[in-house]
Design goal:
The protein is α/β, with parallel strands linked by helices. The protein contains 15 helices and 16 strands. The structure holds pyridoxal-5'-phosphate.
Length: 445
């Protein structure tokens, strides 16, 4: 008789499961969480989560009420319809699409038909729907800026799609390398379907594209008949006052850009609200073209059915309270991130002077959540574990964001969820780690 309580006996072989399950991309997140869990007293520059000081429990019921009032007064819904809207299954493409469209108009100067928006369970689902819809078969490959956000690579893995890396420069994307990769893919019979990038304060590099590069990228996309997947979770968080650069979608006159949005950093991640703007027209066997968003909606209906209405209502309430401007909604958060970026960059300068004994350099993003530091040791999992255990500081190895090789001596510091005091203590600890590992490296030379 088999013993169901025997926990040591394996029932399945990992080799029989989906290959993504043994892919380092999918292991990376678990590893970071696991290390963070084991060293709760370590200062964490690892998590890219938003700051928590503006989370307010009382706001949640208020947001619901605000959204309810909007449905009644603006949409003419009666009590039954409102109840149904909150409690029932809902519209596959979402119920806050008009508010999201208004946000895009107000904050980004992007004019889109609300019907071209699919409200998703986080941007993660938007990426999945986009890749699923766009890639017809194994000939279709995705190009992605490298280093790249791990969620995109992970989604491609789950869909068995190849991701071809495109190098980054200090101005954003290396356009010459993009062309090289498009041509190389075509030369081996592949179809480069879309190019994924984060033009504003990228995760993980913190870098942004300048205006000329944005325009050049759009022309190039037209020339090579390529779609651009623009992911923009951090665009609002510019460190200096002044006008922000236009998004690719705002510059897009040719429906080249599929815009991926996340309200995780600008609303709150607990709601898990994201969206995709897919205004491309699809020819379905010669009939009148239909929106790509409607094709994605079919996929969504088999994935998450609809994005939870209650979560949408809360995000919707927050949008309504600020005239649909997430810039206005985030005035406090923006100050925190600005201050933290300033403190982090200043703290690095103080601890690692240019002519000092330790070879440490870093980039200087003009906004966003991340700074990349180059260190004189292999910034790998082992070093992170050592850092957590003996020096009490956590960071993210940059190699996690390179699909293959790269970033070996680099780490990402996230500034969004730390206090000024933690920045100070964390950087002191980073200094002691670098000094410690630098000595060890010298001893072995
Ligand atoms: C570049 C980028 N895209 C997307 C996301 C994920 O968004 P969501 O939490 O809405 O799934 C993140 C989150 O860290 C990110 O950094």
């Amino acid at each position: 008789m088999s013993d169901h309580r025997d926990q040591t006996r394996a029932d399945l072989l990992i080799g029989d499961l989906h290959p993504a399950l043994t892919d380092p991309t999918l292991e990376a997140m678990n590893f970071l969480n696991e290390v963070a869990g084991r060293f709760p007293d370590a200062v964490s520059f690892a998590a890219g989560r938003p700051c928590e000081e503006f989370f307010e429990l009382d706001a949640l019921p208020r947001y619901l009420l605000t959204f309810q009032e909007y449905l009644e007064s603006e949409k003419g819904a009666d009590a039954d319809q409102v109840r149904r809207m909150f409690f029932q299954y809902g519209r596959t493409k979402g119920i806050i699409h008009e508010l999201v469209a208004e946000h895009l108009a107000v904050d980004e100067g992007i004019a889109v038909d609300p019907e071209s928006i699919v409200v998703t369970v986080g941007c993660q689902e938007a990426m999945f729907l986009t890749l699923r819809a766009l890639c017809a078969d194994a000939h279709d490959v995705v190009l992605a800026v490298s280093p790249s956000y791990i969620g995109l690579t992970g989604a491609a893995r789950l869909l068995d799609r190849e991701v071809w890396p495109v190098r980054e420069t200090t101005r954003g994307v290396d356009l010459a390398h993009l062309v090289e990769q498009i041509e190389a893919a075509r030369a081996v019979g592949k179809r480069p379907r879309a190019f994924y990038l984060v033009p504003d304060f990228a995760n993980p590099s913190g870098l942004s594209m300048d205006l000329d590069s944005r325009k050049a990228l759009l022309s190039l996309a037209a020339e090579y008949d390529l779609l651009l997947l623009e992911d923009n979770p951090y665009g609002l968080f510019q460190a200096e006052d002044g006008t922000r650069l236009p998004t690719l979608k705002a510059l897009d006159t040719d429906r080249r850009v599929v815009y991926l949005g996340s309200l995780a950093k600008t609303c709150f991640p607990g709601a898990r609200i994201g969206f995709v703007v897919a205004d491309q027209r699809v020819d379905v066997h010669g009939t009148a073209p239909v929106l790509l968003a409607d094709q994605m909606s079919k996929i969504k209906s088999m994935l998450t059915v609809n994005t939870p209405s209650v979560a949408q209502a809360m995000a919707g309430g927050k949008l309504l309270e600020h005239g649909c401007s997430l810039v206005k909604a985030n005035s406090g958060e923006m100050e925190v991130y600005r201050r933290n970026l300033r403190l982090l960059l200043h703290g690095l300068e103080q601890r690692f002077p240019a002519k000092g004994p330790l070879q440490v350099t870093w980039n200087r993003p003009t906004g966003g959540f991340f700074v990349v530091v180059t260190v004189p040791f292999a910034a790998d999992e082992e070093a992170l574990e050592y850092s957590a255990q003996y020096h009490g500081v956590l960071w993210t190895p940059m190699r996690h964001f390179y699909d293959g090789s790269g970033g070996d001596n680099q780490l990402r510091l996230s500034l969004s969820a730390v206090s000024p005091q933690q920045i100070d203590i964390g950087l002191d600890r980073l200094l002691s780690l670098v000094a410690d590992l630098d000595t060890k490296e010298n001893e072995t030379r």
